[in-house]
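Table S7 (text form). Paired inputs.
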Amino acid sequence: MPLYETVFVVRQDVAQTQVEALGNQLSDLIAGMGGQVPKKEYWGLRQLAYRMKKNRKAHYMLFNIDSPAAAVKEMERTMSINEDVLRYLTVRVDELEAAPSAMMRKSDRDERGDRGDRRRGDREHRGDRESRGERPRFGREAAAPEAEVEGGAA
């Protein structure tokens, strides 16, 4: 059977339990049509890149699906009818990833505080660069020393 990954986005004012119930409803629909959903991931309430139907945040959920195309088509039809689902995207893949998705790995890393050296400003000295020397002064910085000399002479 073909393999799919589906991500759908649900309105922010829907409770997490309702989002998970919707996910169970959709996975039951797939199972009823001869498919299976080996992995379901709730990514949480996240900020949207742009407003969708007056929502700034949304609940995200990922499905890995092993199912006939007709079952996926019916799941997409059901999501398009449901007014709580803002967007969905289904992609056919060659193989399903058994490990946690990149979004879940990112949240694990954030909880541990392991963000790498980029955010701490720990940059190594670059020995291949030469010193720039003193830079020429322009604008007010250049006029300020002359004003002090003129003010002192008067």
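Next pair, protein 2 of 2.
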Amino acid sequence: MSLTERFLQFSLLGAEWVMWLLVALSVFSVYVMIERALALRAARRSDAAVRRPVMEALEAGDLAAARAATKGAEGPGGRLLAEMFRYDRRDHATLEALLDAARPHEKLRLERNLSYLGTVGANAPFVGLFGTVLGIIKAFHDLAEAGIKPGGDSTAVVMAGISEALVATAIGLMVAIPAVVAYNALQRRVKALMAEAEALAGAAVGLLPSNGTNG
């Protein structure tokens, strides 16, 4: 059997399995959207809860209270501060270097699974198009098997097959568009969270005495 014949046999499976694949990708996309939206909202709330007690403690020179306020923090700002307070006896330049090293890790933590949404958004239309091509191949093969008959029956058969095949492209677009929108929206929220976290960490460094004590 030639390569063309092997691919033809594969194509005759039709587009339905591609549509089920797109449905599965869509279900996981919705899960990622909900999970990331909830996680980012929790991170924002955590940083909002940490900001005031930490600033007040540092202004009062109570480093122990500031450290306690960041214990168990889930937001990037609180986690950056907790990392910084582990090395509170260091000078400001060292603390800035430690923060620079911790920021990429926090950003990656916030962006977890977002690459999946970007990948689905970019490739789901092509997966749908692939299903459409398979469906069209099957439609024309069925027409060839049935033979051309008078009365327009053959045309109706092939047009019905093509219309069914086009559903795969439509589903691909339906999967891709929400994924792209969610990806862009969640990326903006990640950037906003990191900007707020860096501002909080910078303010905390400014309030720490150089080579500060453990309070």
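The mean pLDDT is 84.
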